[in-house]
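Researcher: I'm comparing several assemblies side by side, and this is the next one on my list. It has 610 residues spread over two chains. Same procedure as the others: predict the full complex and return the structure.
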Amino acid sequence: MTTGFERGAAFVDGRFVPVDEARVPITDVGFSRSDVTYDVVGVWDGAFFRLDDHLARFERSCAGLRLRLPFSRAETTEILMRLVRLSGLRESYVDVICTRGVPRDGSRDPRTFENRFYAYAIPYVWILRPEDAETGMDAVIAATVRRIPASSVDPTVKNFHWGDLTKGLYEAYDRGARYPILLDHDGYVTEGSGYNVFAMVGGELLTPEAGALEGITRRTVLELAAEEGIRARSAAISEQAFRGATELFATSTAGGVMPITSLDGEPVGAGLPGQVTSLLRERYWQAHKDPRYLTPVDYGPAPAH
Amino acid sequence: MTTGFERGAAFVDGRFVPVDEARVPITDVGFSRSDVTYDVVGVWDGAFFRLDDHLARFERSCAGLRLRLPFSRAETTEILMRLVRLSGLRESYVDVICTRGVPRDGSRDPRTFENRFYAYAIPYVWILRPEDAETGMDAVIAATVRRIPASSVDPTVKNFHWGDLTKGLYEAYDRGARYPILLDHDGYVTEGSGYNVFAMVGGELLTPEAGALEGITRRTVLELAAEEGIRARSAAISEQAFRGATELFATSTAGGVMPITSLDGEPVGAGLPGQVTSLLRERYWQAHKDPRYLTPVDYGPAPAH
C-alpha cells in the first residue's frame, strides 16, 4: 500500500501534504529576502535526538529575527511527530522553518507581515555516507571566499545565507574535493557547508568559538569528550594550527561525527580517521540509545488527513 | 470581467498562473540555501524600461553563480511580455528568477541539479510613494549591522541575501525612520535595502563604487547627469563625507530617483529635495518616454491559457 508520503511529509498552511507538493509562495520574503530561520532535528531508530535542544535553539533563532512562531513548543512537537508518523520513516531529517511571510498590499514594513511556519520530514540525509566513514571527507580550505561575518549576519541564528558556502562548495569540486571549510576575514577557521569542524591541536580538541553555528552535534561532541576525559574546548583556530592538526572531523545532524582525512590534497595525520575521532563517532551513535537524549515517535496507526 | 490575474501573473513550471498561486518547492535550494539570482524590470506606461540591460545583467548574474538559464533572451522576453499582457498592468514590477533547483535523490552536488526559472509581473512597487516624493526619505546609517562584504557574497550578482539589510530596516524603524543605509566593514557607504545611494559632495555627485549592486537606475542617473553636465562618478564615500553631503538621494527600479531629506534625524541640506536631485528625478521620468530605453508591451487580446 502506498500512502503518498514515502518520499516525506510536509506541513504547509495548516495541512499535511506529501513533501513533493510542499511549496512556499514566491512572494514570501522567506524566499525573496531569505528572511527566515530554521532548524533540523534527526530521528534515529524511531526517536528524535535532542528534540528540545533543537526546538529551544529554533525559538531563540526566531526571537533573534523578531519572528513570532504561531505554535507553542508542544504544538510544534505534535506536528513533527505526525510528520514522521505519516512518512513512516525510522530514520528521518526533520526540518522546521519560520519565514517573515508575504507582504500585505505592497507594504515594505516587515513588522506587519504574518509569519509563516513550515515543517517536513524526509529520509535521513548523510553529508558523508556511513559506508564512506572510514575513507573520510576530502576537504579544502576555501581560497576564493570568506565566511559572511557575524557583524553582517549572525551565524548562531540558523539561516539560509549560503552564498559563501555554495561558492566554497564549487571551489572544492573544482579542486577535486567535496567539502569546503571557510575562514573568516581575520584568517580563522569557521565552518563548512552544513557542518562544524573540530581539530586535535597540541593534544587538545578544539572547535571554532566564533563565526559558526553553535551546532547541537558540536555540543554533543563537547559533552561526550568531557565524559571521556578528552580535553576539549572552543577557541580561535588559525589556518596554520588547523593545517597542523593531528586529527580533523566535521559534525552535523546530517551525518554525526565525520572524519576529515585529507585537507587540500594532503593526508590529515596518517590519512585515516584518528583515534579521538573514531572514539567520539562511536560514542555519538551510542548516545542515540541514551534515553536522556531521546523523544520516541509514536508510530501508531496514521490518522486520516 | 475578472481574469484571475488582476493581482499579477506568474510563470512557474512552464505554466502561467495568478501570482497568488505561484509557489517554489520547499526543497528548491533557491529557498533553503538562497542559491538563486534575480532581476527586476519596470514597466511604465505600457513599455519595459531598459529591458535588455536588465536581462543582460540577469544573464551575467546567472553566469556568476554557474546557473544555466533554460530560456534564451528572446524566449524570456516573450514570457515577460505575456505576463504583463495577462496582468493587464500598464505599470508593473516584473521579476525574473533563476534558482539552482531541487536536489535529486539526496545528492548534495549542486552541479547535478536542474536549474529553475520563475517570473512574475505585479503592480508597480514604490519604495517611496510618488505623493511622498517632496517629503522624501527619512534615512539612518545603520549602527548595528554592516553590509555583507564582497569577499563573502558578490553584491553585483543580484541576490536574496538580505539578512543584513532586514536588520538595518528593523533598526531604522526602531529609531523612528524607515530607510537604512549600510556601511561596509571599513566604514564606507554601500547601499540600502533595495536601493543605491547618491551624495552631492563638494559639488560632485558621487555613488559608492564598491560593495553595492550596480543598479540600472544608478547607471541611468550617471548617464543623465553626464547629459546635464553634472559632474558625477562612482567613488569610495566615507561616512563623514556622506554626512556632510548637500544633497542625498536613493535610486531603484522600484521608485526611480528618491530624495533623502533626513539622515539620522538631521535634515539633509535644507531638509527638502535638492536641486540636482529634483532635476535628475524629472529627467529620469522623462527618459521613460525616450524610445531608446523602451520596449513596448503588446497588450493585444490575451491568448487562451
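Model: For your comparison table: Residues 73-87 of chain A form the longest helix (15 residues).
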